[in-house]
Design a protein that fits this description.
Blueprint (H helix, E strand, L loop, with lengths): L1 H11 L10 E6 L6 E6 L6 E2 L7 E6 L5 E6 L6 E6 L6 E2 L7 E7 L4 E6 L7 E5 L7 E2 L6 E7 L5 E8 L2 E8 L5 E3 L7 E6 L6 E5 L6 E5 L7 E2 L8 E5 L5 E6 L2 E6 L4 E6 L3 E7 L2
Antiparallel strand pairs: 1-2, 1-24, 2-3, 4-5, 5-6, 6-7, 8-9, 9-10, 10-11, 12-13, 13-14, 14-15, 16-17, 17-18, 18-19, 20-21, 21-22, 22-23
């Protein structure tokens, strides 16, 4: 029933004043290689935070908005870094222990989870402190993983799995390490993103042709299509405004009001992986 209440809320809020504060972090190759940028919620005040000849990708805000975690190959291998929200005080958290990617904050900002190939070629999920200490291996299996995300209750990790060429979203129980496939393996499903209250999960799926954005509960129930377009919608993110999401499409980032289907292009210069914070 929760998903129906969620969708009903979208329509109730369609005529309400929309919240426009907040910041969006994203990756862009507008200058020849991927760097991390931020912009206001309306697409203004775009600022480049990183500046080097390597690639900096997949920004993730800390819960308090003070730091951004990201992956970079600037040191010769893919590693996890954090920096202040203005791009200063860059800290390298992992160093040349396989490929380390897809950072995500957990435990209210007290730790991060990420994918690393340091112990297995397919990659496993690890957890560490925000200063890079206390690294703990969480999974140990033959599954190829990407985009890990801790559920709000701290009991499961949502993750994109490569199922021999097909992408599926799964839930991995921290207590038992049991893997529960949540989406159909007959199509590609990827990039889970939790709502601010933890009740809903956005993801991209091509089950109906082009990639569209869907929602489901963290347990995989009530999978519902939210967008309908003739081009791919990918890498979704919630905003702080109920009934609004961010998506990557056509090398840009768009904000979509779900009730009205109104889309606003915020950036269009090779921009991907939007992440919202109410700063």
């Amino acid at each position: 029933m929760k998903v129906f209440a969620f969708l009903a809320t979208l329509f109730l809020l369609a005529g309400c004043a929309q919240q426009r504060d907040g910041m969006i972090a994203f990756q862009s190759n507008r200058d020849g290689n991927f760097e991390i940028y931020t912009m206001r919620a309306d697409g203004t005040e775009q600022h480049r935070l990183t500046n080097n000849p390597a690639n900096d990708i997949t920004p993730a805000w800390s819960p308090d908005g003070s730091r951004i975690a990201f992956a970079s190959d600037r040191d010769g291998t893919w590693d996890i870094y954090t920096m202040k929200a203005d791009g200063s005080d860059v800290l390298q958290l992992t160093k040349r222990q396989g490929a380390n990617t897809s950072p995500s904050w957990t435990d209210g900002g007290r730790s991060l989870i990420f994918v690393s190939t340091r112990d297995a070629v397919n990659g496993d999920i690890y957890r560490m402190n925000p200063d890079g200490t206390g690294v703990e291996r969480i999974t140990s299996d033959s599954l190829v993983k990407d985009t890990p995300l801790m559920t709000h209750d701290g009991k499961n990790i949502l993750v994109t799995l490569n199922m021999k060429g097909r992408f599926a979203i799964a839930s991995i129980a921290l207590s038992s390490k049991a893997v529960n496939i949540l989406t159909p393996v007959s199509s590609d499903n990827e990039a889970p993103a939790c709502s601010p209250d933890g009740e809903q999960v956005l993801f991209a799926s091509n089950r109906d042709g082009a990639y569209e954005i869907y929602t489901m509960t963290p347990a995989g129930a009530a999978q519902t299509r939210l967008t309908t377009n003739d081009v791919d919608d990918r890498m979704p993110s919630f905003t702080a405004t109920p009934g609004e999401i961010l998506v990557s499409k056509r090398g840009g980032i768009s904000r979509i009001v779900l009730a009205s289907k109104k889309e606003t292009v915020l950036s269009y210069k090779g921009d991907y992986a939007p992440a919202w914070h109410t700063r």
